[in-house]
Sequence to fold (642 residues):
Amino acid sequence: MGVTAPMLIAAPREAFCGTYAVDPFRGFYQLVIEAGAIITLFALAAHFRGTEQEAQAPIALLMASVGGMGLAAATDLGLIVLFLQMVSFPSYLLVLLVRSDKPAQEATFKYFLYGAAALAVMAYGLTFLFGLTGSLNLRIIGTSLAGADRAWIALAFGLVLVGYGFEMTLVPFHVWAPDAFQGATAPASGFVSVVPKVAAFAGLLRLLLEALPHNLVPWPVMLAIIAAVTMSFGNLMALRQTSLKRLLAYSSIAQAGYMLMAVAAAERTPGAMPAVGYYLVAYLCMNLAAFAVLAQVERMFGRDDYVAIRGLGRCAPWSAAALALALLSLAGIPPLAGFAGKVFLLMAAIAGGFAWLAVVAALNMALALYYYAAIVAEMYFHEPERTKAVAARAGYAWAIGLCTAGTIAFGAIPTLALSVAQLGSSMLR
Amino acid sequence: MALTAFFFYLFAILAVVSGAMVITARNPVHAVLFLILTFFNAAGLFVLLGAEFLAMLLIIVYVGAVAVLFLFVVMMLDVDFAELRAGFIKNAPIGLVVGGVVLAELVALFAVYGFELGVGKTLAAAAPEAGSGITNTEALGRIIYTKYVYFFQGAGLVLLVAMIGAIVLTLRHKEGVRRQSISAQVNRHPAAAMEVVKVAPGQAIVPSSEGQG
Fold:
């Protein structure tokens, strides 16, 4: 992180013969990915300490993070394909770290099949872009697409969106997410729910803004419709879940929908890019905290349904408080980071001319409050089934502490992260 | 020129014949050996075309690694080939359709473009000049290690991840084998490992009830 941070203010330039952008945009997203990886590492190391997987988990984590960081900076179609694979392979591995675990096997199988298909479709779409322009470079594609046939560009964009949609769990490419999150161990689920998503948002933003001028493909409208469907579907499905990891999976689908809202407005208003960046930071803090607490709960009870957290406020007050904060932030209660993030996203959507989308999102946020509050109520207003101390390991404490501190600090002083995100919104064009 | 033509037809005929033998040979080990022969002949054709790098690649990668791997799989896995062959007639129509589509595509491609493909021209422009004294291998190396060095390293990392993943997921530890467990060693702490006994003067040490021996 120390190495990446100065790059936030460095002047945009190219590296490796124009295939790799060194600009504040990638500096910001790489910082976010690094933070996510380090926080996950605490929880993951605590979870697997003394087991067979102790050495393998951090290696997979490292590789996936390297892939994600590369994706944020890649300006070449070949590199994009390469780095998407590099994010995905170790993520499959992380899901299947406990090999003897039947649900994990099923989860990985689904994740792998969807991933392979989605990335293949995306690579096919990228070949259309190459075929239309004869160049692999995003900026050259952007300038030379102008004369090409609109229908082909739309087709290429649709195919490419499949790959990014898979990583970001957009409806209808989200099918793997609930199973994968439920089957994996909780810290690994947290990682898979955050880092590939951040990387894919960075990659999609770069692709849209550098290679696809808006007058060629109506991508703002397409993305707005997908965003509306994604957030509504995610929230409606989350209402009916009993497994908390599954619930968080659907909730993360809904969160991806909120963020996509600002991505759709990215070209129309300057406030959209910082809004996405800020929300990704907030999302990282809230989601990783929630999954770290779930990891503790899972260790303790071997299950992750409502019964497991019943009365958690009594037997593990600190963990329960952290989980409650994370969930309330995800629901958008002021003054937490999730609230400020949602305000920025809504403002970006309205400024971008998607007032209807902002209304849909606000309705969804109200709906989501129900299931987040239900968990909090379960923790505080019910007697515990059995009292047991949570697995107190320093790694969990660090992960939860860092995330909660982030949630509160970025919520109380939104400009703290927003100014950094603003720095990171200038891109090499 | 006549010599080149002679070798071309020699390699081409051998490649086609051994290719046919791959799918007709009764013994699967023989089929794989014929496959290797086909690769060798294809490599010979590449050399005649002046693509010596591709020829070496074909021999090293396909003959040295892939085909030998096939051989191992065929010999080590006890596949019942009579059973596999029984499904042949059933699946033959689908195979014929797929083969027919591919053939039609190839014919259509050559009917439209002939042998003067535009892509071929642009690719040829990137190849070294005939008289410049730069070989294919050298030219490839110059591009891979300058312009595409980042791709090269990235692809290497992806392959490394895939390899580590495959090993992690398929490694089975045999029960009953004594093995060093590094994480167990690192996580050992003094309280569990030793017992500090205060010995009063003139007293013997009585072993504790846990029986450390």
User: Anything to note?
Assistant: Residues 81-117 of chain B form one domain. Chain B has a mean pLDDT of 79.
